[in-house]
Structure formats: structure tokens, C-alpha cells
Amino acid sequence: MPEKCTCGTTLVEEARFCHRCGRPTSQAPANLPPDSGPDNANGTPPPLPATAAPLQAQAAQLPIAFGNPIAVRVSVIMAMSIIMLEMIPGLNFLFLLWWLLAGWAAVLLYRRLTGSVLSVQAGARLGFMTGVFHFIGMTLISALTMMVTGKQVLDTMIKQNPEMQQVVNDPPLLAGVFLVVLILFFCFVVGACAAGGALAARSMARRTGTNI
Fold this sequence. Notes:
Helices cover about 60% and strands about 0% of the residues. The protein is an all-alpha fold. It has a domain at about 65-210. α2 (about 70-85) packs antiparallel against α3.
């Protein structure tokens, strides 16, 4: 290696380039890893690493079930939205309409997030999931309400119907009545939400010309 560069600068020992002008100190090119740029053997740039597919695209390929994160998120959003509507005085009397709307809107929101056109069965499953989360939310709210004002509610029921006194005084019978009410409530909510989801999927498939 020469002691001085062509520009007149004294070179550092074993330096490959001049620290002043950047000129290489020898004709031998610096060692580069293979295929590190466009000057490789075949003259083409190295292939870029494959990018991971977005979460939405991956979830869109999953079946509509509780293992699908987007389906779960959509179901929870719609269930909580309907619960908020049902808590508004006057609007709670339209509960059946809200349950159908919850399933319908869940299918529309899932389509907006993923671009997938659901089949009738998939739309019904998404509505079913929405109904399940709605049932869980309303059951928790009702349980908290009964813990706070349960005695007042029972007293009001007894005043309106004296025969309820016998049910209240019989804990097993009272538990059975509550269980039957919960089962009926679950069936109505889940069934209406599933019907709304199936109707939305069928309507959407007809508009887009998709075979269902």
C-alpha cells in the first residue's frame, strides 16, 4: 500500500480508502457479501423479503367463529351498541328490531373491514356471536341491577301479583323461574341476531352477484 494518496495526504496504515478524498488505496475492490446489490453475478438486484400479510387479510380467511379476531371484535361492538340503545327510555320497546339490526349491521361492518362477502350460514354465525355477547352483557347488567335493587323489584312484583309471594318464598322455584327466563331470553336474542345476520348476508350476496 502506498504511503501517500494521489491527493498528497499521508495514508493511515492498512487503510483501504483515503480519509480525505475517499479514493481507494489499491485497485482491489472491498469485499462485499454476495448478492448485496445490483452488481452481483447476474446483474439483478437481490429479491426483497416477502411482506407479512396484514392482520385483516389473514383474519378474513378464517371461518366465522370465536377464533376469528375480527368477527369477535365486530360482534362485541354491535352487541354493546344495541345494549346502549336498549337502555334509552322508549327505545327499549323496539328490542326485537334492535336484535335483528345487530346481526344485520355486524355483517355490514365485517364486510367493510375485510372486504369479504359472507354466505348465509356465515352471516347467521356472525349474528349468533353478536347475540351471545349481547346476552352476556345484558345478563351482567341485570345481575348488577338485581344486587342493588333486587328487593324493591320483588316487592313491586308481589304487589302487582300476590301469587308471586309463593314463588319468592320458595328459593328452588324462584331459581327455576329465573333459569327458564334466561333460557328464553337467550333463545330470542341469539335467534333474532342470527336471523338478521343471515338476511344481511343474503341481501349482500344478491347485490354483488355472489353464489351462496
